[in-house]
Amino acid sequence: MRESDIAARVGGDEFNIALIDIASEQNAAEISQGILNALGEPFTLREKEGVRVAASIGIAIYPTDSRDIETLAIKADAAMRRAKLNGGNKYTFFDQNVDYAA
Q1: Sequence-distant (≥ 6) Cβ neighbours of residue 10 within 8 angstroms
Q2: Which of 33, 39, 76, 98 has its CA 20 to 30 A from that of 7?
Q3: What was the pLDDT predicted at 23?
């Protein structure tokens, strides 16, 4: 993440990240891949070495996907669920073919 971005825990193991002033979808993809790479680095937990974390990231873009924050969050969540269904540990952009109930 960049210093200008905002992260918030929304519950359990779910977080929302607002990428402020991205230049393109490619920038969102690069930042998302960077987050996945960082989370995938092994660490030590309670003296157990080599612990790894995986994540699934859903991306919705303002104003293309929506102009209001609630709808953006719903669409990002739908895209995240698709990423999980496709094996997880990846990012997926929202598109009109994403099943909201997935």
Answers
A1: 16
A2: 98
A3: 85
Is there a contact between 82 and 91 (Cβ–Cβ < 8 Å)?
no
3-state secondary structure string, 7-66? EEEEECCEEEEECCCCCCHHHHHHHHHHHHHHHCCCEEECCEEEECCCCCEEECCCCCCC
* pLDDT tens digits along 2-29: 888 999 999 999 999 999 888 899 999 9
Delimit the domains of the chain by residue range. Answer: 25-93
Nearest to 90 by CA among 18, 26, 37: 37
